[in-house]
Amino acid sequence: MFETIAFYFFAILTLSMALVVITTTNILYAITALASSMVFISAFFFLLDAEFLGVVQITVYVGAVIVMYAFGMMFFNSAAEVIERKQSPKILCALSFGVALLLTLILSAPSIGENLSNQVNSNAIDAQIPNIKAIGYVLFTNYLIPFEAAALMLLVAMVGGIATGIQKIHGKNHTQFIKESL
After folding, report:
1. DSSP codes, 79-124
2. What is the reported pTM?
3. CATH of 2-75 given 2.60.40.10, 1.10.150.20, 1.20.120.1200, 3.30.505.50
4. Statement: residue 179 has pLDDT above 60
């Protein structure tokens, strides 16, 4: 009985927040409603006893919406500040190298994962192990390389965001700021 009531409660809340996202004209209200609807969607995972998926739903999707909220606050009214500049060949070379490395990792990850799983006993996961431990075991054996590639991409995005923030706050590019800071 509790699950049925909770299901309908979270369904109504999710649909109402989705309706706010569609109908509002204020971008910040829409992003806030989108974050709320993602939290309510994670409640469905918790009702289905899929705790890991519920936590991932909150951290990934709500985290992404919060980042989108921050970008909406920073850049929505600053369209006049956009200045076109020439592209540097070093940036193009580094970007090309990064894309090539990423594609190599993505295409080689299944074969590397199969080799790693052949080395590990495939019968190690049984029904007695909790759901989160089983996911962690598979994640760090079969999918270790894609997991590390995703971590590297998040690190690069974080460093790029910090560099962009420094440039916007101080009005200088990041190399000038670092030279002056040292």
Report:
1. GGG----PPPHHHHHHHHHHHHHHHHHHHHHHHHHHHHHHHS-TT-
2. 0.47
3. 1.20.120.1200
4. yes
